[in-house]
Design a protein that fits this description.
The protein has 223 residues and is mostly helical. It is 45% helix and 4% strand. Among the domains are: 65 residues, no CATH class; 59 residues, no CATH class. The protein has 8 helices and 4 strands. The two termini are 30 Å apart.
């Protein structure tokens, strides 16, 4: 759920938790940067006020951390959403970075195993962030529209999100899973995206063509 949906008394704790996760990530990256600059573990330990073995352990963990892409606040779409949820970047920066991000193709089945694990950097991370409440539905919709060149429309919808979800589930059941995009100006249609990972389901207003995000993100597997 988004921060606005959390009881007022719990928001400070939730925000602190989100910031702690990002702070830990930034700390490991800074340790990695110091090591790459040629500083010794003894120097780093002295500056941080910790034991040298603790620095060694932290550097081993830091070596596995991916550095942010040039021009972006995070290494993945999900991290960018995390930074927004923690209050480190504003909405404008979030939308800009998610729109420009060089997404990678989702995982594909080899024809024998239907279990798909997406690599880092796929669009499914944005859907996952929306499902977990790190970003609002209107942010998801705006980014989706921008990436697909769809003009925003504030007219009321004739096709509800619930209808889009239901239709998506029907198609998934008939086709054994896949990445669904439910759309169409003259009603709902559906297309399979070629993977067994349902990253998002969308409904498009039958009259206005406005994209509606369902928020139904889940793993689809063949029966």
């Amino acid at each position: 759920m988004t921060i606005a949906e959390i009881p007022a008394e719990a928001r400070a704790a939730v925000l602190a938790r989100r910031r702690k996760e990002i702070d830990e990530l930034d700390y490991r990256r800074e340790l990695r940067r110091l090591e790459q600059c040629g500083y010794s573990q003894r120097d780093i330990a002295r500056w941080l006020g910790i034991a040298q073995p603790s620095v060694l352990s932290a550097l081993r963990t830091a070596s596995k951390v991916t550095m942010p892409l040039d021009g972006f606040s995070g290494a993945t779409p999900y991290e960018i959403c995390q930074r927004y949820a923690a209050g480190f970047i504003d909405r404008a920066k979030l939308v800009d970075e998610l729109t420009r991000f060089p997404y990678v193709k989702g995982g594909q089945t080899d024809g024998y195993d239907s279990l798909i694990v997406d690599p880092a950097g796929t669009w499914s991370e944005v859907s996952d962030a929306a499902r977990r409440g790190l970003i609002e539905d209107d942010v998801y919709e705006e980014v989706f529209n921008r990436r697909h060149g769809i003009e925003p429309d504030v007219a009321s919808s004739h096709v509800t999100q619930a209808a889009a979800v239901q239709r998506g589930r029907e198609v998934a059941g008939k086709n054994g899973g896949g990445e669904l995009s439910v759309h169409g100006r003259n009603g709902l249609t559906a297309s399979m995206g070629g993977t067994n990972n349902v990253s998002s389901v969308h409904g498009k207003d039958a009259t206005t063509g406005r994209i509606l995000k369902t928020g139904d993100t889940r793993r689809a597997r063949r029966p």
